[in-house]
């Protein structure tokens, strides 16, 4: 049925006429919040990493991995100002790279929600955290040991100085 429905095709494949009306652009344009001035009490980096992953899954991530961010992961070394990368992935019924319509962008929206709230939570703990599109998430996800496939969308990467134990 969906293959012959022109409205479904437009929903999946036609990008919004004005990107300013897109939730993706609104969230990506939102500035990072302030870092809480008092550091929160943390457990070991291993336990803290587990808490970060649990929070990401609670927010809607299907896969979460942590790795060390290297300057060679970006076009410019200054794009990697913080040592750890938290990489999340969500299920994707349609590949956002080939389905630019609102329906095709659902995993992008879901991933942005996860990374926006997760980075805000890390800042509330008193550590720096920023979402970035400047790093390619797929190589970092592979380095963190996440299984990637056709039905998986890797979100923007969160860079942080929160002491975490990398997966690899």
Protein architecture, described:
- It is globular, with a radius of gyration of 17 Å.
- It has helices at 6-13, 23-29, 45-59, 106-124, 137-143, and strands at 63-68, 84-91, 129-132, 152-154, 157-160.
- The mean pLDDT is 88.
- Strands 1, 2, 3, 4 and 5 form a five-stranded antiparallel beta sheet that branches.
- It has one domain: NADH Oxidase (3-Layer(aba) Sandwich).
- Helix 3 packs antiparallel against helix 4 (106-124).
- The protein has five helices and five strands.
- The protein is of the alpha+beta class.
Number of strands: 5
Helix content: 25-40%
Q: What number is the mean pLDDT? A: 88
End-to-end span in angstroms? 44 Å
What form results from the Cα inertia axes? globular
* Count of alpha and pi helical runs: 5
| SSE string, helices as H and strands as E | HHHEEHEHEE
**CATH domain class name:** Alpha Beta
Return the domain count. Answer: 1
CATH topology: NADH Oxidase
CATH architecture: 3-Layer(aba) Sandwich
In short:
This protein is of the alpha+beta class. It has 5 helices and 5 strands, in the order αααββαβαββ.
Q: What are its keywords?
A:
single chain; NADH Oxidase; 15% strand; alpha+beta; globular; 168 residues
Topology:
Blueprint: H1 6-13, H2 23-29, H3 45-59, E1 63-68, E2 84-91, H4 106-124, E3 129-132, H5 137-143, E4 152-154, E5 157-160
Helix pairs in contact: 2-4, 3-4
